[in-house]
Amino acid sequence: MTTYFPNVDKIKYEGPNTTNMFAFRHYNADELVLGKPMKDHLRFAVAYWHTMTQDGSDPFGVAVNQRSWFGATEMETAKNRVEAFFEILQKLGAEFFCFHDVDIAPQGNSLEEFLQNLDEITDLIKEKMDQTGIKLLWNTANLFSHPRFVNGAASSNNADVFAYAAAQIKKGLDISKKLNGENYVFWGGREGYETLLNTDMKFEQDNIARLFKMAVKYGEKIGHKPQFLIEPKPKEPTKHQYDFDAATTMAFIQKYGLQDDFKLNLEANHATLAGHTFEHELCVARSYNALGSIDANQGDVLLGWDTDEFPTNVYDVTLAMYEILENGGIAPGGVNFDAKVRRSAFEMEDLLLAHIAGMDTFARALKNAAKLKEERFFDDIKEKRYASYKEGIGAKIVADEEDLESLTAYALKHDDIKMESSHIEYVKNRLNDYLF
Q1: Could you confirm whether 146 is annotated as catalytic?
Q2: pLDDT (tens digit per residue) in 384-395
Q3: Do the Cβ atoms of 33 and 364 come closer than 8 Å?
């Protein structure tokens, strides 16, 4: 069997003082945090698309990534990628993976050929899964890259495109059952509009909901019910996407009565594009009991597009992990590295180094968040801030025992209101003590 990374052994935890590039400094899979192994808190997954098919090109430069799995035909390359991918997973100790249908198999010259190619490649993937015990966190259909999706998929003005998208989703659910996928994701890369001058927004959103309901019904028919996830993103490639952020997507889910079947898959870089922090998006989803899974990456606030960098900002990731702990965990979702190496990191082994960095960052963040939770750092701050609602008039407001008339009578007698400082700079300074 070909070894694609002959110079790298299985990556192990060696502690923060190691000088070994190919070792974990902070991620110790079996270390107990809040009574549970790190690996079970984090449920790390590797994204097939950025890891195996991204070539390092950008709008201003050609491909630079050095990859050794290219064969004489597209199918030979696809099979080589499966071998290389599972070698990456095993060396990282990652227990899950994710993919789009077009990532793993060439589309060929017809839908029929594409479906046949998917069958052949997923047979090979299943063999690898059975051999290694590695699991499918989620899969999805790419309904945005091909020219047929120029005007969207479910939101397309062309009914033939809607039907083609439905066929891809059906196959995706068949594959999910075949590989025992724990989740199934919908990302509407072009489900939005360019201009309202020629767009019937309500009709397009109605059609998206129709397709989602078809997916739920088909899953029930074949006896496979993964956790369905919608991944919000505000823009790029579509000028205005219908799943703009967590709140917008939850409004859609509730409008169409999908709340019993759908949760959210949230990405850090998408939060940045929406003008939010990642922890904001996670908190919104958690407030709806809809936090399903996350895509782990980071954006660059100086750049206005989806840079998908590997997460290395311990501050941001700590606050995200705190929300996940407050959620009671992320399972059956996970932490999927929807991230790509920088264009200057073009060697094969950079794929491993980048994932090590991301996994170490989340491990540090997990331990930080656990300590914040154990010591009630945020709980105590919030309890003090909202203490006026624990007794007196505040307690009556919360108990729905007051109305506008009674509150007016109260306010007339208590209009000399004393406010307290938040001391927010002190709070942030104390937070740094947990991080560093």
Answers
A1: no
A2: 999 999 999 999
A3: no
Residue type, 368: N
What residue segments make up the domains of the chain, in order of their start?
Answer: 12-374, 378-435
The pair of structure tokens assigned to 120 is 């052949």
174 annotated as ligand-binding: no
Question: What is the token pair recorded at 58?
Answer: 């950008």
* Marked catalytic residue, from 103, 243, 245, 316: 103
C-alpha to C-alpha distance for 53 and 209, rounded to whole angstroms: 30
Q: Which of 41, 100, 280, 355 is catalytic?
A: 100
Q: Which two tokens mark 349? A: 């082994």
Q: How far apart are CA 158 and CA 152, in angstroms?
A: 9
In this predicted structure, what is the pLDDT of residue 143?
Answer: 97
Residue 58, helix vs strand vs coil: strand
Task: Using alpha carbons only, give the angle 422, 426, 427 rounded to the nearest 5 degrees.
Answer: 70
SS3 for 423?
Answer: coil
Question: What angle do helix axes 201-221 and 246-255 make, rounded to 10 degrees?
Answer: 70
Cα atoms in the 13 Å half-sphere on the side-chain side of 254 = 10
- Residue 103 among the catalytic residues: yes
Is there a binding annotation on residue 306? Answer: yes
In angstroms, the CA 210 to CA 94 distance is: 35
267 is in an annotated binding site: yes
Q: Quick one: pLDDT band at residue 304, thresholds 50, 70, 90?
A: confident
Query: What distance in Å separates the CA atoms of residue 363 and residue 27, rounded to the nearest whole number?
Result: 5
Which tens digits make up the pLDDT trace of 84-136?
999 999 999 999 999 999 999 999 999 999 999 999 999 999 999 999 999 99
* Spatial separation of the C-alpha atoms in residues 416 and 410, rounded to whole Å: 12
CATH 3.20.20.150 for domain 12-374, yes or no, is: yes
The answer to whether 270 is a known ligand-binding residue is yes
Nearest to 349 by CA among 6, 2, 12: 6
Q: Compute CA distances 57 → 60, 316, 341, 434, 435, whole Å.
A: 8, 28, 11, 39, 35
Q: What is the pTM of this model?
A: 0.96
Report the candidate in 283, 293, 280 with the shortest Cα–Cα distance to residue 329: 293
User: What does the radius of gyration of the chain's CA atoms come to, in whole angstroms?
Assistant: 24
338 carries a ligand binding annotation: yes
Dihedral sign, CA of 305, 308, 310, 314? positive
What is the rounded CA–CA span in Å between residue 138 and residue 330? 14
Would strands 135-140 and 96-100 be described as parallel, antiparallel, or unpaired? parallel
